[in-house]
Amino acid sequence: MKSKIKAFMDLVKQRNQFEPEFLQAVEEVAETVIPYIVNNEIYYGKNILLRMVEPERVLMFRVPWIDDSGEIVVNRGFRIEMNSAIGPYKGGLRFHPTVNLSILKFLAFEQVFKNALTTLPMGGGKGGADFDPKGKSDGEIMRFCQSFMSELFRHIGPNTDIPAGDIGVGGREIGYLFGMYKKLRNEFTGVLTGKGMSWGGSLIRPEATGYGTVYFAQSMLETRNDTLKGKVVTVSGSGNVAQYACEKAMQLGAKVVTLSDSGGYIYDKDGIDESKLAFVMKLKNNKRGRISEYVEKYPNAKYIAGERPWGVKCDVAMPCATQNEVNLSDAKKLLANGCFVISEGANMPSEPDAVHAFQAAKILYAPGKASNAGGVATSGLEMSQNSLRIVWTREEVDERLQRIMANIHKNCIKYGKQDDGYVDYVTGANIAGFVKVADAMLAQGVV
Ligand code: NDP
Fold first, then answer.
1. Which residue out of 90, 105, 114, 126 is catalytically annotated?
2. CA-closest residue to ligand 1 atom 5
């Protein structure tokens, strides 16, 4: 088996030499899916995985715009249309200076599996730009978004490709992108998700990724007859996903003690309560400030510059910032401190060695493609509401979100339960996602 996986990876490496994040994501899938393919005749010898690692289409384009000082700035825009076997391409846009082909291809590849897991008819895609929104004025953000959309609009559409938000792309950016799309196309359609409530958005969409990550942790705990009540939780990040993971964990009786950003993390041993979280939301979403300002308002908390929160003692950890933010040494610290649940809100936040350490310790470990699928699932619900031209209530959307997360959990168990009863959620998520996409690809022929 090892030689089959190696031969496959050698080929993928040869074709994608300078794309470490993409290769990392593919290898994790290959390790779990190739053994399954070998043991299941209908998938064997059809090169399905080889087809899946090749994007259906890659778009790269110039994004020129003018900053507040009058200077012309040029960024690079991307859209990876990865796989449309089970539905139109769907996946977020990331605006961050580190964005490149490798990062977007890893995200698009993971998105294919994640979207299949939701059971909704959505293919996978991802896009973005190497644009840094930090420190930019509203006018600069708007001009950048308009320039970005002035190229992207010809490649997307409500039945073709439906982008959403990701790092650096929230409600404000989706608004500017949607406004430009509508002007260029002269049509009002559900082409983007994460829209504002008065113009086609869905209730619970902003909350969905963070809430879903917590619902998934809850389902994992239930397998050990346990709950989140009284658990100490560490969360990284302080953006969209982190904020709502913190809110839902709190509502379910857990004590969240950390949040972070790229500058460092805050540790509040008393726990983050509703009013402290409201402060963080205002600080991050309106003032666009730094998490270090938390300790100015709440001096009992500590700010640790330049570090991540994984050395803090906890029962549950939720990495909600970015890829590869948990390395082997972090994993060892988490395990030594008694952490026994990891529910990833971010995409691929744990390095492969860290994942192997969690699995060897047989703790409850959920990979992002399963535990953070609530965001895209609710985007799927936004698309449904747009098509039907109706608006579901908060309770209706939340109830559907909970049902979808419980279903994803059930599917992970179906394909990931080992002989000794341990659930390998990585294997479970990869095979469940693969089966759905592979069946559709087989039915549709070699295209
Ligand atoms: P936001 O832009 O709202 O927040 C990102 C947070 O992560 C910020 O606190 C940011 O800090 C921090 N961060 C970003 N890059 C780094 C870095 N290199 N090192 C340390 N901290 C960093 O993004 P989201 O909350 O939307 O996304 C967070 C993660 O969740 C990403 O991995 C994303 O792909 C994933 N995700 C998001 C979904 C969504 O619906 N939004 C859906 C599914 C997954 P700073 O402000 O200093 O940059």
1. 126
2. 239
Q: Residue whose CA is closest, atom 11 of ligand 1?
A: 261
Domains and CATH numbers, the chain: 57-189 (3.40.50.10860), 208-366 (3.40.50.720)
Average pLDDT over residues 83-100: 98
Answer whether 392's CB lies under 8 Å from 202's CB: yes
Q: How many whole angstroms from 433 Cα to the centroid of ligand 1?
A: 24
Question: Residue with the nearest Cα to atom 29 of ligand 1?
Answer: 346
pTM of the model: 0.96
Which residues form ligand 1's pocket by a CB distance below 6 Å?
A: 165-168, 170, 209, 237-242, 261-263, 320-322, 345-347, 372, 375
Tens digit of each residue's pLDDT (9 = 90 or more) over 145-181:
999 999 999 999 999 999 999 999 999 999 999 999 9
Instruction: Return the sign of the alpha-carbon dihedral for residues 380, 381, 382, 388.
Output: positive
Report which ligand 1 atom has the smallest distance to the Cα of 379: 40
Residues 332, 356: contact at Cβ < 8 Å? Answer: no
| Three-class HEC string of the chain | CHHHHHHHHHHHHHHCCCCHHHHHHHHHHHHHHHHHHHCCHHHCCCCHHHHHCCCCEEEEEEEEEECCCCCEEEEEEEEEEEECCCCCEEEEEEECCCCCHHHHHHHHHHHHHHHHHCCCCCCEEEEEECCCCCCCCHHHHHHHHHHHHHHHHHHCECCCEEEECECCECHHHHHHHHHHHHHHHCCCCCCCCCCCHHHCCCCCHHHHHHHHHHHHHHHHHHCCCCCCCCCEEEECCCCHHHHHHHHHHHHCCCEEEEEEECCEEEECCCCCCHHHHHHHHHHHHHCCCCHHHHHHHCCCCEEEECCCHHHCCCCEEECCCCCCCECHHHHHHHHHCCCCEEECCCCCCECHHHHHHHHHCCCEEECHHHHCCHHHHHHHHHHHHHHHCCCCCHHHHHHHHHHHHHHHHHHHHHHHECCCCCECHHHHHHHHHHHHHHHHHHHHCCC
Tens of pLDDT along 270-305?
Answer: 999 999 999 999 999 999 999 999 999 999 999 999
For residues 119 and 35, the answer to whether their CB atoms sit within 8 Å is no
